[in-house]
Amino acid sequence: MPVPKDTPFTEIGAGIPATYVPARNTIFLSLALAWAETLDARDIFFGANALDYSGYPDCRPEYLEAFTRMADLATRAGVEGGVRLRIHAPLLRLTKAQILTRGVALGLDYGITSSCYDPAGDGAACGRCESCLLRLKGFAEAGLADPVKYQAAHA
Q1: Which value, to the nearest 10 degrees, does the dihedral of the CA atoms of residues 122, 124, 126, 127 take?
Q2: How confident is the model over 62-84, as a mean pLDDT?
Q3: Residue 33 contacts residue 69 (beta carbons within 8 Å)
Q4: Judgement on whether residues 9 and 43 belong to the same structural domain of the protein
Q5: Mean pLDDT, residues 45-62 taken together
Q6: What's this model's pTM, rounded to 2 decimal places?
Q7: CA 117 to chain centre
Q8: Which domain holds residue 32?
Q9: Please, which residues bridge with residue 45 across strands?
Q10: ∠ at Cα 88 (83, 89), nearest 5°?
Q11: 81 and 107: one domain?
């Protein structure tokens, strides 16, 4: 299916977008949970964001709270009363601009990142899908130049 393009900002996040992948974060977190329990780790870090996002149901605080409750029911530590696993989502309530600013402060090279759902064959971002639009808005609000290569149609 074609990736939606040029969605007005007022409509982004208003519903679950066509780019939604069913249970994606549930799968990732489940694998992380199993691996963490195997390693006797106490913490999982999850990069979901509930502000400036496209409306994915598994990026909301309510989802993270429910998954954490489920993890307490599904792990040995949770059932036997050991040290419970903690899921941290440090980006959950930050705007894209705040996330970008923190990344720059930490030395992240955003030139090696991409957010595009529909890149060209050479990897150039489309600049028109919801993810690109949110990324460009975040860079603008942070007062930063986005170093990613965009397709000529966007330039």
Answers
A1: 180
A2: 89
A3: no
A4: yes
A5: 86
A6: 0.82
A7: 13
A8: 1-94
A9: 88
A10: 165
A11: no
